[in-house]
Design a protein that fits this description.
This protein has one domain: 3-Layer(aba) Sandwich (Rossmann fold), CATH 3.40.50.620. It is 34% helix and 10% strand. It has a 7-stranded mixed beta sheet with strand order 3-2-1-4-6-5-7. The longest helix is centred in the middle third of the chain and has 20 residues.
Length: 259
């Protein structure tokens, strides 16, 4: 059985054209995350937001963003299956930076129907079941979160996995109405991430102290083994080709940037 949720409430965001986005960032050094964020926040204002899972990458971006605009928007998805450490990190971030976090939750009726029909761990039975769970708990709530935005910011990096090797700093996100998708840390290494967190005394998710390198739902994430890529601990029982939840699954249109 497949459950669906009406998306009628999701309205077109009025996304920027490719030429407009290119002009906006044409003089920006695309290896300078702060410069990218400053242009995006100053130009789009409340029409741009960071989608945070409270990974180290996302807490770095919060640190940078709040220093530019204390009222910048930060979105987060509470799937109902997050680790307690993730909630602890979110609260530390909120208190340190005095920022408001806009939490979005899955449709309760869809979650209830899924669990009643297939049980609480159907995501381990097949890839289709796992994608269904991700759809209900993450993908559809994100669509609501991005409603009305012209751009969104993510903490994705190329080194995280083979599925992200071609990641560009600026992309048109065709899976969300063609809005601009900004990945300021695309070229960063995990070592750079850790160094920035330490140097700036940024609160981080305690799961990293247990070897985690990617933050997701509790039953679907473990620490990667030695020699595995950073996201190998996500849905580790599946083939590597399926290491995305659907939020970043659809291939975006690149703007021609290479940094």
């Amino acid at each position: 059985m497949t459950f669906s949720i009406s998306n009628k409430e999701i309205k077109p965001a009025g996304p920027p054209a490719r030429s407009q986005a290119l002009r906006l960032f044409e003089s920006v050094n695309l290896t300078d995350a702060n410069a990218i964020l400053e242009v995006a926040l100053n130009h789009y204002g409340p029409r741009v937001a960071l989608a945070s899972s409270f990974s180290m990458e996302d807490t770095i971006l919060i640190d940078m963003i709040i220093k530019i605009d204390p009222d910048a928007r930060i979105l987060a998805l509470d799937t109902g299956r997050l680790n307690e450490e993730t909630h602890e990190c979110a609260e530390k971030i909120r208190l340190k930076y005095g920022c408001q976090i806009e939490w979005f939750f899955p449709d309760s009726e869809a979650v209830e129907a899924l669990v009643r029909t297939k049980g609480s761990c159907s995501f381990k039975e097949s890839i289709d079941n796992r994608k269904e769970c991700c759809l209900i708990r993450k993908v559809l709530p994100l669509e609501r979160a991005l409603n009305g935005l012209h751009a969104w910011i993510t903490g994705q990096r190329r080194q995280q996995s083979s599925t992200r090797e071609a990641l560009q700093v600026l992309e048109l996100d065709q899976s969300h109405g063609g809005i601009l998708k900004i990945n300021p840390l695309a070229s960063w290494s995990f070592s750079q991430v850790k160094e920035y967190v330490e140097a700036n005394n940024i609160p981080y998710n305690r799961l990293y102290d247990f070897g985690y390198q990617s933050i997701g739902c509790a039953p679907c994430t473990r620490a990667p083994r030695e020699s595995e890529d950073e996201r190998a601990g996500r849905w580790w029982w599946e083939d590597a080709a399926h290491k995305e939840c659907g939020i970043h699954l659809v291939k975006p249109s690149h703007l021609g940037n290479k940094s």
